[in-house]
Structures are given as C-alpha cells and as structure tokens.
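Quick one:
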Amino acid sequence: MTRFDDLDRALTTFFDGEAAAPAPAGLLEMVTATTTMRRPRQTWHARLRTSTGSIAQASQPVSRALLVGIALLLALATAAVVGSQLFPRPTTILGIFEPTGAITNQTAHFAASARLTDGRVILAGGLGNVTLFDAALDSFRTVSTPGLYSHAAIAGADDSALLFGQDIREADATPGISVVRFEGRTGSVSPILASSSAFGDVSAESALVGLSDGRVLILGQSLDRADAGSAATLIYDQRTAAFVRGPELPALQGPARAFALPDGRLLTIAAADPDGAAPQSMVLLDAPSGTVVPAGTIDGRDACTWTILADGRILVAGGVSSADGGREQTVLDTGFVIDPRGATVTVTPTGRLPEGRWMHGAALLADGRVLLVGGDLAPARPFAATPSTLLYDPATNAFASGPAMLMARIAPKVVPLADGGILVAGHYGLAPNAPATGAELTAEIFR
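Output:
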C-alpha cells in the first residue's frame, strides 16, 4: 500500500464523522507530498465538495489549527528567505585547490591585480596587454592595451579599471607613468589618457591606492637631487585626466607602500633598506589636506606579504632581511600585525611561521583567516618555488600549515573572488633569474 492509499483512507475516515478526533499522524505531510506531486484527488475530494456544510461545522477546530499551522510555516519560510539575503551565511571553506582554464598570450609576470565590480579580475603585467579572468566562465582572455606596459590596476565603481604602466610607443622615449581606462562593460580600452615623468617609470615597487573621491595616489621615488631616494607622490585625477604633484613625504625612503584606512587616511610605510635590516618608518597621511603624521617604525623586511584583516588591521608575514647591500639575506619566519585604528599606530608580533618564506602571496579568506601561498623557503638563487601554503588565524594570532597547491609558484597574484574563492595565478618564471616550472600560464582557485 502506497502513501497515497494511506492518505485516501485517512481522509475518508476523517470526513466520515471523526472530525472531533485528532488529525491522523503524518496527515499534513501526506497532503503536502500529494499536492506537490499533483496526484489525482480521490473519493475524499468528492465528499469534501458534497458535504461542505457539515464538514465545515464538524471540523472547524481542526481546520483552524491546520490553517494556523500552514500560516506559521509560510511565515517561517519567508523569514528564512529574507534572512538569507540580508544576512548571508559565511562561505564554506573546503580547503582544496581546483584548476582553472589556461592563461593565454601572457608575456610577462603579473605585477598587479584588481577585482571589478562585476566579479571579473584584471591581472596587469604584460607587453601591450592585460589578462581578464571571468570566474563565471572559468576562463581567461587577453585585453589589448596599445602602447602601455601595464604594472598596476585600480578598480572603479562601474566595472571599469585604471591601468598604470610605461608608455612603450616608439615615439615616446621619455620615462614616465602613463594611464589608460579599461571599460568592463564594452571590453574596450582607451588610448593613453595622460603621462608624467615626475619620478620615472611606474614599477612593481610603486604603490598605487585609490582614494575615497575616486582619485589615485601613486608613491614612488624622487628624482630631485636634493631629495633623491626619498618618497614622492603623484595624484591622478580621472575627472581631469591629469597628474598633479601630491603631498611631500620627506620622512620616508621611497618608493613606499600605502594602505587606505576606513576613516579616509592612508598608512604609508617606507621601502625596505637593501643595505641592512634598518627599521622602516611609518606615517599617516591625510591626502586631501596633505597632513603627514609620523607613526613609528617596524622591523625592516622585504618580499613579505601585507594583508588587510577584516577588522582593519594589517598582517605582515615572512619576507627577507638584507645585509651587505643585499648580498646576504635571511628568510624570516616571523610576522606582526599593525593596528592603525586608534590615535597611535601599534605593532603586535604574531606567532612564528612553520617555515620562513619570501616572495609568496596572500589574501583574506571569507572566514577572516589569511591564506599565504607559495614563495621560496630559502634565500639561494636561482629561486626554488614551493607549492606549500599557510593559514593565519587572527583569533589565535598563529600560523598553521595549509593544503598544498597544485603547482609551485613564486610571487603569484592572489585575488579574493566574489564567491569567496581565492584565485592564485601565474608564477615568476616569466621574470629574469626565475626558472620556469610550468605554472607561468596556469591558475588555480582555493575553495
């Protein structure tokens, strides 16, 4: 006997005069299942139509209970749907790496990356082109940027990005920083909008950060004899398509690193000293007013990762300290957290890394932890890439070993995706002094 036979017998008995008794066990579930599967209604349906008056009178208490129960179920279902939209569950992290489609037509190491508002990812660094990754299609394509060797990308609010790099047109022999605009909705790239030679070519060492008003602050190294070697700034204003000189940063050695803070200020950090492990100075910069406030120092290191945590602090992990003009290097297994949120900037050491590493990548996970991937575990040259990863937990301020990547990578671009995954793309093998590993034109996603 099927559930439909059980349902028919139960309802027939119910309508034949036993309405005062409790509804048979599982009755509501059987009605729901039958209705959902569109089963033809049987004899109890005919009795329901011919005996409406008597049934309604006899079954009024039970009917009310059923109606109230159904109304409550509908209300709970609606609340669950609305709640899931307003308060989405944290993305489940599986702890695995999955391959993506192949990267095509890439001729240089990726120097920078940015995620567009529609979820696609720009990977900058190429002779006259950049690479665009579409997570929905799991594929890469090349976008031509005529005349520009891209080094940096800053995402806009309208599926666009500003690409900064070197002007490589034959007619332009003057070193400088140039910019083009990529239109994500049309896939088109503007001609070079503007150029400046204020402090030479933009490079991977130059820091570019988007300001709250849509302008872009660029930190590089001064070419002026009086301030040679110190940090210098430019501001690109896309409303006027022009570069203007930015605030002076005489306290910093350049090129420096910069982080946009939630309150609109920027934390800027001097470049590492290649002649030794000298402390790196920090300053807080208010870009609109040009106000510069010293913010202390941190231990000198290079080739480390800098990751903004969910609470606004900054994790600094691994890297190398140098001596004797960079000829002696020590791979670091230490880290610290910079907290710029208060009136003063504080620095707190982390637990040690399971093994020191440098030239690695890092990104913030959806659950608040930080994923560190690849790099090199030793200072020897040529570089030796590793597929190993680490996970930093801000709740415990400690590092732990993570799952291995599918391929060993040095200096990959690591980008959080809109769905909570982490794109890990490329390898330093396209750069000088870096052996190819086969990972140069590949990518994978941490889930």
